[in-house]
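We store amino acids, tokens; thus:
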Amino acid sequence: MRFLVTCQAARPLEQSMPGDRVLFRPELDTADDTTVAASLREVRPHVVISATTPSPAALLAWRDAMGDEPVAVVRTGPSQQPEERRLPSMEAEPQHSRLPFDVPLFSVPGPSNGAGAPADRDEAALFRALAIAERFVQEHRAKLDRSTAAVGDRSDGEPESVLVVGAGVVNLVTAHTLLANGYRVTLVDAGPDPRENRPWEQYGCSRGGGNARMFTLSEMDDYHARHADDADSNLVFDRPPAQLGWDVRRDAAAVAGDRAWVQDFKSPPRWLTRAYNHDIFGLNRRSGDLWKEWMKEQPHVFDGLHVRHDILRLYQDEADLAASQRRQDAIGATLAQFSPDVVRERFPALAQARHDAFAGAIMVRGFTLDVHRFMTGLLDLLEAGGAELRFHQRAERILRDDAHVTGVLTGSGVFHRDHYVFSPGVDGGSLLADAGLAGQVHGVLGCWTTIPNTQQPLENSLKVARRGHIAADANVTVGEDESGRPALMVGSGYGWTGADPRNIDERKLESIHAAVADTVELLFPDTFRSIGGRDGLRPTEKYCVRPWTASNLGIFQATRAVSGAFVVTGGHNTGGFAQAPVIAEAVLHALRGRHHPMHTLYHPSRMQRVLGAVADSLPA
């Protein structure tokens, strides 16, 4: 796929344009119709991004040159035609008007006179136009996929059966959704039953990590560099925690393919990673709506849980606070702003925090809950609803004929079902390879500790931002410890393990635990001293390894099984819980043969489908 950019820009953007997939030809913005038509015939772009609409003669030449291939125009700047419609938010199906010769026309507003330098506003408008172009091409590819991926129907009138592999919180929400929609559910997991409360090391990320999960509108935030002067963000996998990086591997040469995965992380151009972030937040909005509906319509699911609404975001750095304020405002998350003095007054639990603990705070929409109890409740509901639950059952291989999945081999035999839904976390190496997704999911660990919440108890859960610190982002969740006592669960840190989730250097892990302890001491010095300092934290310290993708998007792959669909989800980095309801919705749509935006936005080959093998064309 090729994009041709003819609109003027305030700064050269060639460094953001990989290979020859995105061509920057601003001289065509003022060229005559004959020159434009000749260029369109020569370049044969699938999308033209321009400040003006090509003439009918140029459109005809372009349409003839492209044959049956898809084409579209994305125009920047003020609308010139009253019938033209704006593109809606990216989580919705794009709308457009039509130019002559059936060429779709999209519109993106040009640079405004708002905040930021003119060059930054020009870049933002162009990046938005490129995102619209990319979405147009992705939707075209999705339509082709749907035309060849029909889902079979049972002819005997019996409920359709589904095998759900993996008992993390995402798959439990999916299994609950499928059961509620009439499917016969069998769930298998290699680990013990989460209700048995075994040692945390025996479980996956959801049950093995802290008893806390959070939803906000900016969860699963993309970690690529967002600005030209933010290149250090793309180097986090090249550095250990002591150098503010994420590499905690014990043996850097232990797993083949680790560096290729890092190169894949560095490959997307900034306009595309900005589109990724926009799409993630769009799915968060949909998931937030689904969480609200679920809590309203089935309150019994949440009975007895420690659900806390409204999240207080603390920022140690003033510039970080200002930038986050703009981001939270833009996504409609902000409820209130507080100065440091007001924070200490309104939230007594933070009154004794160190003098430089925060430069200010933002209250945002969201909630937290105790995820272990939530998982227990979902498992009880699944069992009561007739689902078959099998633990200590490792799925070993995916069985296929020439074109379809036919079953799943486990240690106790082969399972044959109409549909299959896999969410294997970081331990799904052979299964992901069988699904054609080898090497796509790596591990990024996060550390946890727990402190009492008894003296001047905290009422709202926190997000804590400490720029330039090993524990740069921390969640502090109000709830109970495993013994039922009021507690704060503190989770923070990023530790890349590569493809092997057990490839962890204990010294590097210790540096993250120490950084989490430093955050506890920063915010709750009295509690920190009362429990004996770091030594008092050590008995509660643990970690979980989150499934992560190089794109920072989740994975959603739907292919055919003999009698239905075979779906793989995963790699949601920090956002699996937050997006669990919309992931379940996307799975349900796939099993019913219906399209869902996640099928396109989280396609595992999203970048390659539009830009090809970008990594080969970029500098190392």
Remarks:
- The two ends are 23 Å apart (CA to CA).
- Confidence is low (pLDDT under 50) at residues 79-94, 614-620.
- The chain has 17 helices and 24 strands.
- The longest strand covers residues 486-498.
